[in-house]
Amino acid sequence: MLLVFYAAATFPAVIGAAVVMTVPFHSLSHSTSPIALGNNLDVSWIAELIAQSIVPALPMLAAVLGLAALACILQLFLLGGTLRIFAVGETFTAAAFFGGCGRYWWRLVRLALFSLIFFAVAIAIGVGLNWAGNKIWGEGSKASPLIYWRWFLVAVLACLLGQCSLAFDYAAIRLAGEESRKSVRAYLGAFRFIWRAPLRTMGLYIVLWLVALLFLGAYFGVSRLVPQTSLALVILLFLVRQATVLAKLWSRLLFYSAQCALYHDLRRIPVLMEAAPLPQPEPAALLVPGLESLTESVTPTEPEQVPPEVRTDHVAGAPSES
Fold first, then answer.
1. Is 105 inside a domain boundary?
2. Which domain holds residue 222?
3. Residue 36: inside a domain
């Protein structure tokens, strides 16, 4: 699964990078400057070239946006197979994985389109808070209230977008795990599921994001320490970047595997509480008549309960007197 996701993430990225690099290489013709500038690619330089040449940049922009849309569709397609492995619990095989991709793809597309409404509402709230902060402190002489308000705005926007993303994850798990076809009901039910267990669902989500940010922080630290001054260092940084891509994809699979496990764990609790009590075993006397008296006669009695005067020994069918 990790290799499948790696191929799906690398292929659109390579095509997109090739499309973007056509603008600077074409503008610099056949000189040796593209090699030097390409080794240390500057995004602002690419933006300046795009601004200078609007006509060739428009097809390139359309191609990049088309590749981004295809990449999103491809990720939704692969998500169906991932949920079939993690949510349904099937063993990973190519047939099971790609069968789940085709089985749940249209449901996930409807779910993604419906979730865009909630993401748009979250962004609208962030824009409204930003407008309110500029309206209150934008014309003041002190910048600190506006800075604190921006921090608050970032925290609120992160919480809202994270809540929408978390609901999308559990809604997708519900579509696959319960074989539901109603995407709208699954998304709204995901919000209710998160509300019933907020500490466990949000806590797991935060921990998983900390794991992903740990990989990203390690990558940025290594990329700052490794200069691109020789071919060996360029190859080393390329390998570090590919390892980072694999780590990001692994953390994404970790998101769905952990959330599927938590979803099944929390959904199993009310089922066990509402289950009917187990039937009690029937007495031995009702099953086999006379069995209860037979067991009582075979069971040895305690010494203090035996009368001291007479003891009956069944030896050769004759009683003996002690």
1. yes
2. 2-270
3. yes
Map tokens 């794991």 to a residue: 211
Q: What predicted TM-score, i.e. pTM, was given to this entire model?
A: 0.68
3-state secondary structure of 315: strand
What is residue 246's three-state secondary structure?
Answer: helix
CA dihedral 241, 247, 250, 255 (to 10 degrees): -120
Please write the tens of the pLDDT for every residue from 271-312: 334 444 555 555 554 455 554 454 444 445 445 454 544 444
Q: What is the mean pLDDT of residues 215-229?
A: 85
Amino acid identity of 244? T
Position 289 in a domain:
no
The count of structural domains within the chain is 1
In 3D space, the residue among 66, 26, 68, 23 whose CA is nearest the CA of residue 48 turns out to be 23
Can you list the alpha helix ranges (DSSP code H) found in 138-230? 144-177, 183-196, 198-225
Q: Return the SS3 of 318.
A: strand
Largest pairwise CA distance in the chain:
124
Residue 313 in domain: no
